[in-house]
Predict the structure.
Amino acid sequence: MATSTTPARRPSRAAGWSSRCRRISSWQLPNGRMWCTNPAPTSRSNFFGCDGLQDDRIITWLDMIKKKYPQIDGHRVYVTGLSAGSSASELYGVKYADTFAAVGGVSGPGIDKEEISELAAAWDGPAVPFAYLCGDHDFFGMIPVDLSSPDAFPVDEGVTIAQVDPRVPIFPLIQAYQRINGLEVSADMDMSLNEWYGIAFDETNDIMLGGKSAQEGVLNGADGTPIMKLVAIKNQAHWNWKPEAAYLWEFFKGFTR
């Protein structure tokens, strides 16, 4: 975990990103330059071809843990992750809404947004409280949601990964969670409403996370309780960070299943 005094990392060749890309399969841009990706990207594949524990095994493992440690409150189980783990958490929170009381995403690209959107379209389950945090210097460039981040990793002159890789955009994910939580679904992104997430919030708050400025957008449920929070952190890149974990825990504590 980084401390609150650690400066945000910016995308750069010095970070080893380009060399790692060369060790992974790639596809060719129109001008002949290459960008790394999986040979056949699916909702199950992250940017380095690692699936990790699949969702059914996660649930099996969780059931084993709860049986072994009966002191765990099964009504207060939450799911969160970083990057591809964020996307998977957002999917598991919907697929297993009877297990997870709330969902938190950190620096997550929209890898699983299509499956989440399909589930949301026919949703008849409970509300799924959702908080998402992303830095404005994230090298995938999820925010602003119009993919205009100047700090996203460049794959060509004036072109970033966010603009060419369909797994990066997150706006459909936001729409899916609005639908799941019984909120008005934003038809299109409108950056005049919010410079980071392109939707109208019920509340917009300027907050501090670990000494860094952040903007918190809040959507309230029918009972007035904040059911979705989308946070943009200034001068923050793509990584785990203790203040983000603390923020998510404060959000999670308000929900049980």
Observations:
- DSSP finds seven helices and ten strands in the chain.
- The beta strands are 26-28, 34-36, 79-82, 103-106, 130-135, 154-156, 159-160, 203-209, 212-220, 226-233.
- The radius of gyration is 18 Å.
